[in-house]
Write a structure and sequence with these properties.
By secondary structure, the protein is mostly helical. It is built from ten helices and eight strands. A three-stranded parallel beta sheet has the order 3-4-5. It has a three-stranded parallel beta sheet with strand order 6-7-8. A two-stranded parallel ribbon has the order 1-2. Helix 3 runs parallel beside helix 4 (103-115) and helix 8 crosses helix 9 (241-251).
Length: 283
């Protein structure tokens, strides 16, 4: 927990410095817009989208957001598990304090719109999501959640995760505003169950408003599922995560067009819109 003014900003700056070195050493660049993604795909070159989970580093200084933009930030998760020193809004696992977003939180979203940074409202309460949708001139993403009607078979996990899950009614609000929702892997005990969870979300939002939402790391193997390694989301999986999910979606009778949308097309669309500089009207 960061209690002193400037601590979050210093940590964020150090992380960007470390990322700069990591990308340079591996010959990888940041994708700054949809055109960069298309160009990289055409050339079969890996790229990353620079994101941050939690706007703690901003501390009511919007010029810091522009600094981050100039260093490649293109996807901002407004809130995270712990409150920021300058409050931005209600976190879904915390008691209600602000009845949605604060003025500072709304100003951050407006500045993201102006600069061209995709706004991610994961970890926001329902009212904070609705405030964000109202103030944003562009569609938003909720990068990782799941339907609260599908909490999984692990009672302990389901109880812990329930505040983090979204209702059908709230998911429909996000979709109707042009947003996209990433479906978590955490509540699925198998790739097949994960495909069923994606199906359930798509039945509510429509296929154009759902994507993969791992909230895990593509990194060395680990058998601990929750919050750790993408390629080890399930036991007894011999291939990589994406190949496994695509096969599960095919087995669940999703069409190839549907899988293209779920597997990246929907995210690429909203990323392209979100990273276009200047305020735009949601479609």
């Amino acid at each position: 927990k960061l209690n002193e003014k400037g601590e979050a900003y210093d940590r964020f700056s150090i992380c960007l410095d470390e990322m700069d070195v990591l990308l340079k050493n591996n010959g990888i660049s940041r994708a700054l817009n949809g055109s960069d993604l298309k160009a990289a795909h055409k050339k079969h070159q890996p790229v990353v989208i620079q994101a941050v989970e939690g706007g703690h580093f901003i501390e009511d200084k919007l010029e810091r957001l522009e600094m981050a933009y100039n260093r490649g930030l293109r996807h901002l998760g407004l809130l995270h598990d712990n409150p920021s020193l300058v409050p931005l809004g209600d976190i879904y696992t915390e008691p209600v304090r602000y009845n949605g977003l604060t003025e500072s939180g709304m100003n951050v979203i407006k500045e993201c719109n102006r600069l061209g940074i995709l706004v991610d409202l994961a970890h926001c309460s329902d009212q904070a999501i609705n405030d964000g949708i109202k103030v944003s001139g562009k569609p938003i993403i909720i990068s990782h959640t799941g339907l609260n009607t599908r909490p999984g078979g692990n009672e302990k996990m389901a109880k812990m995760m329930m505040p983090r899950l979204i209702s059908k009614e709230q998911a429909k609000i996000v979709a109707d505003a042009g947003g996209v929702i990433g479906v978590w892997t955490h509540l699925a005990d198998s790739p097949q169950e994960y495909a069923e969870n994606i199906r359930a979300m798509a039945d509510v939002t429509g296929i154009d408003h759902v994507c993969i939402g791992t909230d895990t790391k593509i990194a060395p193997a680990s058998n601990d599922q929750f919050g750790t390694r993408t390629n080890q989301s399930w036991e007894h999986v011999s291939k990589g995560f994406f190949y496994t999910v695509v096969k599960a979606l095919l087995d669940a009778r999703f069409t190839e067009d549907d899988i293209v949308k779920i597997g990246g097309g929907n995210y690429c669309r909203i990323f392209d819109t979100g990273t276009a500089a200047g305020i735009s009207v949601r479609k």
